[in-house]
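Minutes, project check-in
Item: structure for the 320-residue chain
Input as provided by the requester:
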Amino acid sequence: YSQFKVCVCVCVCVCVCVCVWGDMTTNSTGDLPSSHTAVTTVSIEYRLVDPQTYRYLLNQPSVCRHRSPFLLFMVPVGAEDAAAREAIRKTWSASGRDTLTLFFVGIPQRPQMSALQQKLEEESRQHADIVQMNFVDNYHNLTIKTMMMMRWLATYCPGASYAMKVDADIFVNVFYLIQWLRNSPKENFITGSVIQDGRPRRKPNSKWYVSEELYPEESFPSYVSGAGYVFSADLAARISWASRFVRVIPLEDVYVGLCLRILGVRPVYAYSLPFFRSLFEIKNLKYDRCTFAKLIIANGFKAPKLLRVWQDFAKSHERC
């Protein structure tokens, strides 16, 4: 009987080792760092909102089948924001064959759900640039949406060189951005408006509230503002993998920073000389053609303003 128990234990141990090894070789793109503090404990709460449990309701799985875009724009946007999507199509996303733009949406909130869904499906058939996921669009689901975007990129467009996560109210100087990226690292690279001194807000009435239970640390690692950041496309699969070890918090840009900490990747500052001005301007900035010609993004451009400004910028930015 004792020999039988020993045999059973040995078999169980072998099976566990094989399963763990198989999971690591199949899903990981690198080993976890030896520093135990870098990994946030995976909890039951995290498992309930695991991005891997969600699926795509509308998808564009073949858009990269016969092309490898130099730059893929991934725009998280509400299902109801058709005007923002149309403005982007007519402005900075219409620059040329080197780029591709996709809009990532969730499920419309009731009571307008049925009518909006029909319009969204028609828009998707017309433009073939909408990816919809099966969760309700709201602020607290932005982290899940971002991880689904990363997974989409790694799965359906792995040949892209770079990707940009950019909000729908952002002015993007795509001309300068593409030129600037030609000399940028092609692996383990992420840049934007880097925030190094971020701290969790502990007041429950704050939009950015994070409880001590959810995030016990007193500060955040370096991260890039979610308004708009650019990264080498190889990071999509790695961030998606790292997300399995980080408890979800409702601050999507901080969450990406936590995943980057696990990977040992630090965000890079992007600035212009000689005044060391950030190329990613996340504060509202009054439009000036020649100022914007040396920026990558500027914040605060709803659809009417973006359409109006782009007419001037696109035809005359090269004169600056």
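Outcome recorded: The chain has one domain: 35-315.
No further action items on this chain.
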